[in-house]
Amino acid sequence: MKEDKTPKPPEGFMEGPDASPSRAGHEEDPTSLMPGTDGHVADAWDSTSNQPPFAPQTETVRQTVVKTKAKKFPVFLSGLIGIAVGALLLFALAMSGALQLDGSDVGSSGSSSSSGSSGSQTIKINPEDNSLAEAVAAKALPSVVSVSVQQNMSKAGMGSGVVIDKDGDIVTNYHVIENASAIVVQLSGESYEAEIIGTDKSSDLAVIKMKKVDSSKLTPIDIGDSTSLAVGQWVMAIGSPFGNEQSVSTGIVSSLYRSTALPSASGTSIYANMIQTDAAINPGNSGGALVNSKGELIGINSIIESTSGSSSGVGFAIPSKYAIDIAKQIIAGKTPAHPYIGLTVSSVNALSARQFNLSASEGALVNSVSEGSPAAEAGIKENDIITRMNDKPVTSADNLIISLREHSVGDTVTLTLKRGGDEKKVDVKLGSDESVSNQQESSKEDATKGNGSGNSMSQDQFLQYLQNLLGNNGGQNGAKRN
């Protein structure tokens, strides 16, 4: 059966009474801020076509599910087989010393684990003990708020946010507060107006600040070390799924260092080194906290991988180290800095390689090199094809951009290039895209003086530039902001 590759609209769009798309899934009361939305209040579709934006679909690996018929036994025979198997299992476990019924540690009697020994790892598990989740929730819940937004008289939305200091600063996702005309934060049953302090669109992060709040009512969250996480580690997601405030779900770290890019109406957001978790994350969880077993913030819940629009056990969080670093820059009044190389590139695939007789069948083709940029100083030229960054293959233009975002300003990366029939390696010291913003301000001053230099990009132009770089094949298949 042929796979349906029809692009699906983002989570939260449903036909309302007027048959127009709505981020909230239904039209909100224009006079109030109501929960129940997916946390995105942007002008979420092209007004000329009345079509919602969506993450472009990429090729996916077909999964074949093989169904086998279970053999059916008579009821009494099934019972006998079950009793026999159960007895054998109990006997085997008892003989091995691995089964104890008194609630003590699982493991061999009298044994202890030491370095270099062959003893099995001892794990204490009590499935009826909910004290960990209760303790973590009690500690972290007061630091997570609901964020209600009003864009205009007909659109409202809800997301989540995390209190990070006693001044009332809250970190959340940019798409939660995008184009908001009014923001209200709910904390401990009370409502507070909030204002936007600053945003970083390309990272999908923002900082908002509560107005007229007593600092004694604020509980800043403890920040954990997101760089020391391990797959299998226990986590809790906290937020307002579907507008249900102060909700928690638990799970584990499913994987680390997941990266993707999601184009939207306002530009492309690059998500690098994300934490993947199976803790339930749904629309409205955006901007909320992912915490560890100590109740410490390790991530900002941001997107989900889903074909249904709700949790499928595959959620992603921006690591706390990165999110808090961006938040601190915003609070300090700085423009968040990201790695900058100074290239425009397009994707190379097998088809384009044959059509244009290129020297590589995949990679990032250099279309232009900015004068004085790190790429120019490293000797990269137009028509070079970048095939590797350090030890990682570069398979496309968006793959190159995502790989760059996984590094920091000032890092040196080694790029492998194909130039004609030759292969060479160059070292590039990454600069800062803050210079783009500085050029923007300089350009504005020049424009007021009448020289109209136009030799820079605004932040929106830079985001559009990123989107052009990523083309129509960027974005993780099925990924949605929640």
UniProtKB/TrEMBL annotation:
One family from Pfam that matches here is PDZ_2
Compositionally biased spans, kind Low complexity: 107-120
Task: Note the SUPFAM superfamilies from the entry.
Answer: PDZ domain-like, Trypsin-like serine proteases
Under PROSITE patterns, the record lists: PDZ
SMART domains registered for this protein in UniProt: PDZ
Which stretches are transmembrane? 75-99
Composition-biased stretches, type Polar residues, lie in 46-60
What are the UniProt keywords, alphabetically?
A: Hydrolase, Membrane, Protease, Transmembrane, Transmembrane helix
What is the name of the protein in this document?
Peptidase S1 and S6 chymotrypsin/Hap
User: Does Transmembrane helix appear among the keywords?
Assistant: yes
Q: Where is the PDZ domain?
A: 329-421
Q: Which GO terms describe its molecular function?
A: serine-type endopeptidase activity
Does the record carry Isomerase as a key word? Answer: no
Q: Which CDD domains match?
A: cpPDZ_Deg_HtrA-like
Which species?
Coriobacterium glomerans (strain ATCC 49209 / DSM 20642 / JCM 10262 / PW2)
Indicate the secretion signal residues. none
InterPro entries recorded for this chain?
Chloro_Bact_Ser_Proteases (IPR051201), PDZ (IPR001478), PDZ_sf (IPR036034), Peptidase_S1_PA (IPR009003), Peptidase_S1C (IPR001940)
- Region annotated Disordered, chain positions: 1-60, 103-125, 426-462
